[in-house]
Amino acid sequence: MARAAAKQTTKAKTAKAPATSDKEDLLGFYRQMLLIRRFEERAGQLYGMGLIGGFCHLYIGQEAIAVGMQSIKQPGDQIITAYRAHGHMLACGVDPKAVMAELTGRAAGVAKGKSGSMHMFQPKRDFYGGHGIVGAQVSLGTGLGLANRYRKNGKVAFVYFGDGAANQGQVYESFNMAELWRLPVVYLIENNQYAMGTSVERSSAETHLYKRGASFNIPGAEVDGMDVSAVREAGAKAAEHARSGKGPFILEMKTYRYRGHSMSDPGKYRTREEIDAVRQHRDPIDHLQARLEAAGLADDAALKAIDAEIRKVVADAAEFARTAPEPDPSELYTDVYVETAA
Amino acid sequence: MPALSPTMEEGTLSKWLVKAGDKVRSGDVIAEIETDKATMEVEAVDEGVVEEILVPEGTEEVKVNTPIARLKGDGEASSPSSKPADPSPPAGEGGPRSGSDEGSRGNSADVPTSAGKPTETPHPSASPPPSPARGEGNDPDIPAGAKLTKVSVRDALRDAMAEEMRRDETVFLMGEEVAQYQGAYKVSRDLLQEFGPERIIDTPITEHGFTGLGVGASMAGLKPIVEFMTFNFAMQAIDQIINSAAKSRYMSGGQIQCSIVFRGPNGAASRAAAQHSQDYSSWYAHVPGLIVIAPYDAADAKGLLKAAIRDPNPVVFLEHEMMYGHEFDVPDVEDWVLPIGRAKIRRAGTDVTVTAHSRMVGFALEAAEQLAKAGIEAEVIDLRTLRPLDYMTVVESVKKTNRLVACEEGWGPMGVGAEVIARVIEHAFDYLDAPPARVHQEDVPLPYAANLEALSLPSVDRIVKAAKAVCYR
User: Hey, are the CB atoms on A44 and B240 less than 8 Å from each other?
Assistant: First the structure.
């Protein structure tokens, strides 16, 4: 897929989307994206209140990617990403209460309060983490693809990483093996333009990250990551490529995070005007809302109702997360090993 | 006043960017706050109208969680986020509750979180399990009449892998030169012919990457054996071994299992010099979540590698290049599997306990023969598994001999010997008749020159000297 072609996907998608499912899909996407947005806003608030500790990386601004890819994922396809993971987990259908309770370190959290924000897993929903070491999930996710090929199960591993991880050596070690062995892997580079405080231009000799597979013969495409339909269409093509035995595919999702890298980021490496411009002109949720309204798929009252419903889900999750009990002290020593009778 | 970093307790409200009556959207910058580290912009986390500024700009030492403004929700008396049961206004957006004033001023930082703030956790009364529940019982009895066959350590390891691969089709081997080349040290000889390239996988020279692939495949439920040409090269991959394989079960609250074996030669080779001659025993044995095995002879190599492959946990299996060609008796029984986590008394003795693992066991046994001629009966304990460490076997031995020499091939500081001695002091201090001694590599990178290399590495002679010293002979 050429870059120019990929850029047209938004328009093409709107025109040829199947009429029967379009309303349902778009409204569903809107609901999921809004859930992630409101969840993350609330997580930021709980962090500010001292209820969430350590590091906390919010997904605000990038919602269209996790939601668009989830819409083309087949059951059993695996998802793996780095530490900015809350949005992916919610898109996978993990209970918001369990995610929020993990953020506050409670027993009802998705990992019994042992992982916190950065290392959550839920393999029964095909979510394999949540990894705190930049780039490590790329090798691990390629290993998920290796397992798929080993089992010949027709599943694809969706391996997410950021523009920062795109400069890690093991990413290229993984690219090499993935193409060499034709592993069913789709690499999704969420290019939010800043690796912590360092812009792509200041860190990358080749800033078009979808080209990073070129020396391994891995095809790549640039996608408007702020447009859920563009994500969906490009994702479907890439997944089909991988699933059909042709090997890996790279999608560079152009996106933007509104908040700091983590909660303790003063954000002095970019201007407020830059952030505001993206929020005003490229916001993925506003964009989808305008489409829904223009197409007559939802009116103001319907959207308000969805918003109220989502706010309640998130408020309930937050309330649950702040009142649920901490793990029992005996949990300190569990889950270090799989106990064996031997 | 929001906490803007993990360590922030108070801040200065340096500037307000909104005033009462302003309408804000979530994400709008409403104030600037100076913390101990930086000046941060505070964004509204909800939509609404600023009703009142509670903390004027320029105020210093504003405690985290102090309400700084009140925001009125869209068309409501209070924001939907603030339930009546809420003991406090969420601080990041200012206090949204317009009805009650009593909670909005002078709150100490802990009040808002009283409902759910983590409480002081008492140290659990239950003491940690010393090791995973395993290793009950001793080595299996060798059936009467079973033949003992001379097998090299190399072939014993190969046989273990082949038997487990026949038994379980999720087991596969990956690494550099394991397939077509038949193994850099010929440990995987003939495996490609039997199992084919899908299960005996030649990797590029790319330790960090292929180790990550192996760990990822284990997360998906396969049982990879990852061969390192030597453990020196595993340093490229140690992040995946420790951060991904060892910790994921704990971090996931038990949802992720990494049943994987990392194996290959460890320790000194012959004249290979500093970068190719390091003993990583203590590195891996330090890490909870890993099992670490370092066998000496062929029977243990086979029985423990089979156990390692079957184990549901990540196992670091440290072999020794200098032992690959040595032949030992291996019981010719159908399924020779040994318990992980059990030391083995290689030679009984009454005068001094000598502990060792891997190649050093042979040195310790030779030293014991020499000591016997001098009238000292050494009890030689092969640790076999370093994590979980069967220290009670050592403790029981020291209670009998009252003396201890701990040997290892690696460097002494923070080493295996240091751990063995610490355990003995904890559990048998009153039984010791002499300060324990350590035998280990000199505290230098391993040199190349033959004479310097010999001076650096531990030897039979040094074990003999150390044993005599603790016996005051």
Answer: no
Q: Do the beta carbons of residue B247 and residue B215 sit within 8 Å?
A: no
B2 and A148 in contact by Cβ < 8 A?
Answer: no
Locate the domains of chain A by residue range. 3-322
pLDDT digits (tens, 9 = 90+) for B128-139: 544 444 545 678
Contact A129 B252 (CB under 8 A): yes
Active-site annotation holder among B34, B52, B276, B453 = B276
B320 is catalytic: no
pLDDT reported for residue B76: 53
Could you tell me the two tokens for B424?
């003995």
**pLDDT at position A38 over 90:** yes
Q: Which residues does chain B have within 8 Å of residue A266's beta carbon, measured at their own beta carbons?
A: 37-41
Query: Of the candidates A47, A115, A142, which has its C-beta nearest B252's C-beta?
Result: A115
Residue A116 binned pLDDT confidence (cut-offs 50, 70, 90) = very high
Query: Where do the DSSP E strands lie in A129-264?
Result: 157-162, 185-191, 194-195, 198-199, 220-224, 249-254
C-beta separation of B10 from B62 below 8 A? yes
Residue of chain A whose alpha carbon sits nearest to that of B6: A54
Please report which confidence band the pLDDT of residue B121 belongs to, taking 50, 70 and 90 as the band edges: very low
ipTM of the complex: 0.91
Residue A306 has pLDDT above 70, yes or no: yes
**Residue B24 sits in a domain of what CATH number?**
2.40.50.100
The CATH code of the domain at A3-322 is 3.40.50.970
Using CA coordinates, name the residue in chain B closest to A61.
Answer: B27
In eight-state DSSP terms, residue B342 is: -
Residue B177 shares a structural domain with residue B287: yes
B93 counts as catalytic:
no
CA distance B453 to B275: 13
Would B5 be classed as within a structural domain?
Answer: no
Separation CA A322–CA B403 (nearest Å)? 56
Asked if B253's CB is within 8 angstroms of A110's CB, the reply is yes
Strand intervals (E) in chain A: 78-80, 157-162, 185-191, 194-195, 198-199, 220-224, 249-254
> How would residue B413 be classed by pLDDT, with cut points 50, 70 and 90?
very high
The vertex-A217 CA angle with A211 and A219, nearest 5°, equals 55
Give the span between the Cα atoms of A200 and A208, in whole angstroms: 9
How many other CB atoms sit within 10 Å of the CB of residue B206? Answer: 21
Distance CA A295, CA A22 (A): 10
